[in-house]
Amino acid sequence: SQKIEQNSEALNIQEGKTATLTCNYTNYSPAYLQWYRQDPGRGPVFLLLIRENEKEKRKERLKVTFDTTLKQSLFHITASQPADSATYLCALPPTDSWGKFQFGAGTQVVVTP
Amino acid sequence: DAGVTQSPTHLIKTRGQQVTLRCSPKSGHDTVSWYQQALGQGPQFIFQYYEEEERQRGNFPDRFSGHQFPNYSSELNVNALLLGDSALYLCASSLTHEQFFGPGTRLTVL
Question: By the CB < 8 Å criterion, does B98 face chain A?
């Protein structure tokens, strides 16, 4: 079965720097990959979707890359702010046309002033 | 648009009891998925409902069951609660690839 891994260690970063998070997966060739943000005690919020034929996707200060050869996605937060502090989850779509999204455990980002 | 709503916000039950959680999807969304999220883990897919039928199911025992109503709202039922069922239960609605999550129901089993 497919496996999805994110760095379990929290990422502590200084305001203004770039945070880079990694999502690795195995035994799967997804048509796309998603990134979500989750604040404590809240539901995840969709941020970005990147398709297999897209190398890079940007949204404001966020950038996502997708390397289908390495089976890896990188998530960058540029010019980070304390408000960016949260847990970031990557998610793989179902292997069939609907249903079972699989989420990584998430990486906590802490941005200090 | 109220987005996805869930009730109750918090719930405390004892082992062996039964619980029902409720979800109202975002307006216009016809698909509802339920997830269980333990502390420090990512959401784990329980099942998905579409047109009032369970369309896909994750690796959860039959104690977990659900229902979708004609207005697309949904319920998650868990019978014979175990301590390990303590978690944040999330409901997500979708129309396409993007899932919209509710705030979750925090279930504590004592």
Answer: yes
